Amino acid sequence: MSEVEEIYEAVDDINPDLVENASDLEELLELLLFLGFPTI
Prior knowledge:
The protein has 40 residues and is mainly α. Helix content is 72%, strand content 0%.
């Protein structure tokens, strides 16, 4: 499983709507920063 897939799964566990609304990786990374996830 790729890192991106792991990130999507982690966010999906918390709030599935976030994944559905994140149209691309950049948007998802912004959500992760907002949620306080450690990013690379």
